[in-house]
Amino acid sequence: MTKRILKDFSHRTLLGIKEPGDYFDNFSDVKGLFLRVKKLSDGGLSKTWLWRYTLPGSGGKRETISPGIFTTVGVAEARELVREYAKSLKRGVNPKTQRDRDRKEAELTVQRHTFKNVAEDFWDAHHKTWKNIKHRAQWRDSWMKTYTYPNIGTMDVADIRLADIERVIRPIWQTKPPTAKKVLQAIAAVLEYAVAKGWRDEDLAN
To answer: CA 137, CA 186: separation in Å to the nearest integer?
Structure first.
């Protein structure tokens, strides 16, 4: 596939691409991300995000994983997903393996309204509207994955009480009060979402 060079990597520019090729993202900290554009039999175009990486300990073997299809997955989201893949790689985990594990876990718990499942549902429904990219990254990577999921991630949202929320917030408050406030706000937003969906009777975080 022909490697193409772009003057910028904006949504509008990618939307306007008409020629097949691999269009690499050379405009961010993300390395190896590109958009593969192929012609379809009906004359249309397919635009697929791909990330090429080398698995540690594989003798230089290169693999490829897809963050999704453009425009369903936008530029900012594709970059964010690649950052997640890179974190898995640093932990010595193949991003494809991690993705398969996550999918299997989601399938096993699809009928349960655990806090983690509801939070991820909330994320999917809202994060694209958040203009602050740093806020988006912190919401999921820090406030949820680091602080909240280990404590109440597997609990059903209907069963979460103030004592459970305090268990999350108290240790953070002792050393990082501003972060504790952000985590509390994030938990409250997820619980409000659960109430709106009918999965919980009340919001106890406010």
So the answer is: 13
